[in-house]
Amino acid sequence: MDPVCKVKFFNENNERCRYLTDEEWERLRAAAPAHEDHSANLLDKMVLARNTGLRRANLFRAQWSWIDWMNRVIRVPRTKNNKSHAVPLNATAYETLKRLFASRDTELDTSYVFCHARDTKHAGKPVLDVKNAFHATLRSAKIVDFTWHDLRHDFASRLVMAGVSLRAVAELLGHKGLRMVMRYAHLSPGYLSDEIHKLDGFRLRPPTATAAPAVVAAVPAAVAPATPAPEPTPAVPEVPTRAKGKKRATSAMDGREPSAVLDFVKEIGSSGWIRTSNPPVNRRTQVIGLAARPAGSSDGTLTLRSIRLKIVQKIVQTGTAAAFAEGA
Fold it and tell me: How many whole angstroms separate alpha carbon 319 and alpha carbon 109?
């Protein structure tokens, strides 16, 4: 057994927020054409990655059928989260895709935007990696600590710095919530700055001042406004109500007497018996022997009529047995 399997490792900090400055981007653009012999259309790939925010796998496997030219939207049918994702195209991304579509090789039977040339080993298949050419371009532009995925961070960072809301950035990146885009929140020009300025000049509310009664008394009677007399409240007719007891209240409208409610016969069952519960077995029932069911059982309910019948049957049987014993 490996003794290290129970060791808890530190959580990796993947909240990277690396973006290019304007000067770094210009240097990267200038150095990219010199390395396109190793990866065709390297500059166009970087431009699309920086202006769409697509992941490398989605961008390199992009097909012409994904592009909605009329609405200027690129729709990815399945992303990393196994859901579809649509990204609007700005002017830079739209013109780049339009130029690539016009210069494509029509004799090559392929549907991919970025594919291998016709005379190569993987002709027509998508280009899945530009690592060597991209790293060579970074060295030529003297840019350090930058990866291809950082172009996606650059896309989100520039959106936030331009004043776009975090919710809109999350939608453009294809994130389900705001947790992944909170790393860019500090780049927003107004992020929490408007809220912190609310403390300037803030004071607790002073206590409410009460009016002095002496000032009111000093006003002459002739100057003081006359208080209007309150209007008489109209009488509300009394509505007969129903009593809360067992007997209905006598109504003055019909003049009928309340009907009598029959009480349960105490000689047969307990005085606490109610309609919704089984009658408990009292002493007389136990003596006579009518406890066919245990008290409180839910398998049946003893009715008044059945109890009377059983009492009569028991008395008859007992009297018959006694008479037979005397005759014998």
Answer: 111
Backbone phi and psi for residue 63, each to the nearest 5 degrees, phi listed first: -115, 160
Task: Supply 276's token pair.
Answer: 């919704």
**Residues 183 and 166: beta-carbon distance below 8 Å:** no
Cα 149 from Cα 157, distance rounded (Å): 13
Q: Distance (Å, rounded) from C-alpha 247 to C-alpha 253? A: 17
Pair (185, 278) in one structural domain: no
In one-letter notation, the amino acid at residue 156 is: A
Query: Structurally, how many domains does the chain consist of?
Result: 2
- Residue spans of the chain under pLDDT 50: 215-219, 221-222, 246, 249-253, 264, 270, 273, 276-277, 282-300
Of 103, 123, 129, 101, the residue nearest 113 (C-alpha): 101
Contact 66, 77 (CB under 8 A): yes
For strands 85-88 and 67-68, give the pairing. Answer: unpaired
Last residue of a domain, one of 135, 160, 190: 190
Domain boundary among 137, 158, 190: 190
Collapsing DSSP to helix, strand or coil, 194 comes out as helix
- In this structure, are residues 280 and 269 in contact, taking their beta carbons and an 8 Å threshold? yes
